[in-house]
Model the fold of this input.
Amino acid sequence: MGRVSQAQAQENRQRVVATASRMFREKGTAVSVADLMKAAGLTHGGFYKQFASKEDLVDEAIAHAFDDPAAHSAVALEEHAGEHEAARRTLIEHYLSVSHRDHAGGGCPVSGFAADLGREPDQAARARHVYINGVRNLAARLATGDDDGMAQFCTMVGALVLARATRGNPLSEELLQAARTALTESGTGQSAPQQRTD
Done:
C-alpha cells in the first residue's frame, strides 16, 4: 500500500476532527481513540500520525464545533438579518427544541462540552479559551437593550442540559417549554410580571 498523499492526509485529519467534534458532544471526551478512528473510517494506528495527543484533538474538535454555523443556529439567525428580535426568538426556539435536545452531536458546543471542561479545569487551555469566547459570542446574540444576554443564555443552556438528562420523561419537554416561555414573554428575556389575583 502506497503512502498517503498530503492532500489525503489533510482530508483524513479533517474527517477525524469533525467526527470527534460530533462524538465528543454526544458522548463526552472519554470516547476512546479506537472508537473515534473507527467511526471516522480510519485505522487506530493513523491517529498519532495526525495528532500529538488526544488533548490536541479535543482542542481542535472544540474549535471546529464553534466554527460550525449549524451548531449555534447562525444559519437561522442570518434569515433575520437586521431584525434582532426576530433573530433572537428564532435562536431561542431552535435552541430549546426537541430536535436540538435529541441531536447533541450536531448541536451547541457550549452545552456539549460543558461537563468535560468542568471536570478538567486545568487542562486544555486552548480549548477553554475557545469555549469562553464562544459563550460570550453566543450570549451577545441574545442581548437586548441593557441586557447583555448572559442570563438568557444561561437559562437556555441549563434548560437544554436538564432536558437531555430527563429525556424520556414528560419533564423534559416541560423544561424546554418553561425556558422558551420565560425567554420570549418579553423582549429582554425577563418573565412578564404576574398579575395579582387577590
In short: The mean pLDDT is 85. The chain is about 65% helix and 0% strand. The CA atoms of residues 70 and 106 lie 7 Å apart.
